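Subject: for your reference before the review

Hello V.,

The reviewers asked for a structural picture of the protein, and I figured it would be easier to keep everything in one thread rather than splitting it across files. Below is the amino acid sequence we used in the manuscript, unchanged from the supplementary table.
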Amino acid sequence: MSGQRTPTSEVLVVGGGLVGLTAALVLRHHGVAVTVVEKRSTTSPQPKARRFHIRSMEIFRELGLAGLVQHAARDLAGHDRMAAGRTLAEAEQLPSWQPSGAGGPVVDISPEDPCLIAQDVLEPVLREAAVDAGATVRFDTELVAFEQQDDEVVAELLDRRDGDRSQLRARYLVAADGARSPVRRALGIGRSGHGAIGDPSVNVYFHADLGEVVRGREFNLCQIEHPDAPGALASVDGRRRWVFMGNGNGNATDRDWPAVLRTVLGVPAPDLEVRSVLPWQAEMLVADRYTLGRVHLAGDAAHVMPPFAASGANTGIADAHNLGWKLAAVLRGHAAPALLDSYDAERRPAGWFTADQSCRRTLSLRDLASASDPTLAHPFVLAAGGFQYTEGALCNDPAATDDPEPLTEFNPVGRVGTRIPHRWLDPARTRSTIDLAGPGWALVTGNRTPQPVPGRSGSVHLAVHRLDVDFLPAEQSLLIRPDHVIAWRGTDPTAATEAFAALLNGRDGATEFVAP
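And here is what came back from the structure prediction:
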């Protein structure tokens, strides 16, 4: 390294999985230079996460990737039903879950549908998109040490192919390096929560051509009720790739899995091939802090949760979306560094809420299809990012009455700290209220036009939209952050300028109102 200048990047992302790659895409969307390092040689070889909620798809929509993701997921299109039976051969589809009060008019809750796509299919799509967007993505590269300094993080990297070591300097580091996160451990950040949940489990990934067996009964998950092999069967591509999730007590790796799986299937399956056997333990643990100095935790490094609400990967994607615009605002000088404190203030309570809700759910698909526990959060609250931030980058009107977002019902009406409700803005149903913000800010007004506050230097663009929507009275306005969250609501749209300045923690600069 003698005589050579140490490479630099505005942000270093450690971990090249779903969350790390999404973080890179969000940062590039905001024009931030980003380097991703991943110690593995390639993206995940395991299906792992498969269900991506509408909120994740809205984030991919903003990044211009929703159509690409849906295309990559085409093998599982329409496989959204649940099934149950003694064996796969005997299983029947369960009734589709319907929201309470179903039977009235159907209301769209998002411009995007949820998506079933295996993690080993999605990650290569995100990796290629990140590289195309200008991110530097380095696999076979391990972070072996880092040091935080006053204005940067100095990282020591190991090239696992040739053993070479190098340094990289970055203004900030995002740790998306998994549940065992070496970065979190190096920082000495502990975790709290319920710990282990239930008995040990095992995932058996196998290949078998079962297309004819499931024809007409296609499913996302099938509950297997055979007394000798209870568990759940997950469809990875709807025909040949499958994952059986069973009890992991004892030495799970030494079982005769081909015999067990043929019991599960109820058919001979002569071409059955076991690809991997992965014991695991469901846990609920949340990091005691998401930020320490210039390092921020995201994804499994920040929170782990049981898979019963299919929310682990989705929560990590939302972490990346929340953190990305804040890092960009600070790096571009539009916000004071204190803005980054709001990442922990917002995302740690959200992570705890989602992890706790995941613990309180069950793997029993028959329970899901029947009446659910009335104390649980409404499924749309989880799927549409309905958790309300109560602290963070928000400007609450002191005179406003307390109006918390409900959890056991889905009733988004544009409360501060929540995602802006979805409404279509054109007859062709191509443009949504979700599209109004990101990567910039938006001011949505009923019928009044704001004026910029004079006497400040610099400018930040704030697109103004005058809309007639049911959740916004004519005399009110909403300030929408780049992550689609309502930051302020009031009756004087010009006051949005002061709210905007307050949200950016006092950074001097005028607000330049621009036409959408």
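For the response letter, the relevant points are probably these. The longest helix spans residues 312-331. The chain has twelve helices and 25 strands.

Happy to draft the paragraph if you're swamped.

O.
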